[in-house]
Specification:
Blueprint (H helix, E strand, L loop, with lengths): L5 H13 L9 E3 L6 E3 L3 E2 L17 H6 L7 E17 L18 E15 L14 E6 L9 E2 L10 E6 L4 E14 L5 E6 L14 E4 L6
């Protein structure tokens, strides 16, 4: 297997420097969007190995929330704000721990990161309806409750593999609705080598991590 990209190498090196691994991981889960199964990056808080506390105003969470909506674009993120950031060791996706070129051949399973609680305003823009088709007055909105970091927001979803991992409410066409959610992110750098949080999930959670498909939450410098 080829070596991981530079930004991921920085994440893994940061994890190696922490020299502490979490024993608390969640079971394999399935994302409704892709159907791929793998471990979700839940984590155990650690007073020794967790990164430094991070102010909710240190980054813009909106790109991370947009990552949790369908790529078909029927859910628009109107606004988003961070409610709380919790430092912790976050479990790495299973494909990230299989690089044989890592120094000493060590398999790294966790990296310093954060659990981010947020509040966002979403709006449902109906798509895929024909000229003579009636748009429903409302549909169920399935919001991930934070126990499965591979889950994403779904409108009118059916046959969910893990329905208990979602909170269900109603959403109306073109009408904003306020929701609360959870993101998991790793400490690292963006493609410009600026300090950033790397948000999981990605559009292809079963594949190798690619920097051009990741979502970065760039950290603001003090005073900005």
């Amino acid at each position: 297997m080829k070596s991981l990209p530079l930004s991921l190498t920085a994440i893994l090196l940061c994890c190696l420097a922490s020299s502490c691994q979490s024993d608390n991981t969640t079971p394999a889960t399935t994302t409704p969007e892709s159907g791929s199964s793998q471990s979700a990056p839940a984590a155990a808080a650690s007073a020794v190995s967790a990164p430094a506390p991070l102010s909710p105003s240190a980054f813009d969470v909106r790109p991370g929330v947009e990552q949790q909506t369908s790529k078909q674009g029927y859910l628009q993120v109107v606004s988003a704000k961070v409610l709380k950031t919790e430092p912790m060791q976050v479990t790495l996706p299973w494909m990230w721990g299989s690089d044989p070129d890592r120094p000493g051949g060590r398999k790294v399973s966790t990296a310093p990161g954060y659990r981010i609680s947020y509040e966002a305003v979403l709006r449902w823009q109906p798509v895929g309806y024909g000229p003579k088709e009636k748009v429903p007055a409302s549909l169920p909105l399935y919001a991930p409750n934070g126990t499965d970091s591979l889950a994403s927001f779904q409108v009118g979803a059916q046959g969910l593999t893990k329905p208990e991992r979602f909170t269900v409410s109603q959403i109306h066409p073109h009408t904003p609705v306020t929701v609360r959610g959870t993101l998991y992110a790793y400490t690292g750098h963006n493609n410009q080598k600026q300090p950033a949080l790397v948000v999981y999930p990605y559009r292809d959670p079963s594949g190798l991590p690619e920097p051009n498909r990741m979502t970065f939450l760039t950290l603001q410098s003090p005073g900005q």
